[in-house]
Amino acid sequence: MLINTSSTSDSTTIIDTSQFEKTGESAVHQWLPGGHHVQLEIDQIIHERQFDGMDFSRPFDQTNAVLRVEDEDFHVHTFLLSLVSRYFRILFNGPFSESSDLTTPIELKEVSSCSFRNLLNCIYAYPNGFRITRGNISELLELSHYYDCERVTVLCENNLLYNLCHNIRSTQKMEWAIQYDLNNLKNQLLRQEPHLVELLALN
């Protein structure tokens, strides 16, 4: 992918980001001729170009249940979702009507189909086929908390601990750490930036 970036001179600088697309890295902090600095935030663009997502719209690999979100059907494996999520373990195996007939789509409310697709892709395809980015980590944290999916929560926390999601403010990280009980992240932030203890006092 080529990005045209103009400076104050008549020339136009073309930055080739193909090397970053291959490695999955973000192209940030590029210096243009003449000392002009530009920060290219293309992490989400790279993610969208590289990974269209798994196709949950039809059965695959002996899926045995269908979840319906906003009129969109997702074919899933009850064993896998029950393994990673307490919510789905109860849904598929508990004493509820939904668990009695898995041939009928089970409707999930209060979630968008796009966000739910990201959650499923994180469960099924991370890290080889799915990346946690600055553009999707907030919804992944929210949904992993809602569906009690500890594995996804841990994956998100690790991405924040090791700065795999670029350009996220420390205050935002601390807010997530407090909201979703990310204790390892919270302790790391307090060691690195003690002033963030002020956010703890507000909660």
Automatic annotation (TrEMBL):
Organism lineage string: Eukaryota, Metazoa, Ecdysozoa, Nematoda, Chromadorea
One Pfam family named in its UniProt record: BTB
Top-level division of the source organism's lineage: Eukaryota
All residue ranges annotated as the BTB domain in the record: 63-124
Coiled coil: none
Native source species: Caenorhabditis tropicalis
InterPro entries: BTB/POZ_dom (IPR000210), SKP1/BTB/POZ_sf (IPR011333)
Protein name, per record: BTB domain-containing protein
SMART domains in the record: BTB
Transmembrane segment boundaries: none
PROSITE patterns in the record: BTB (PS50097)
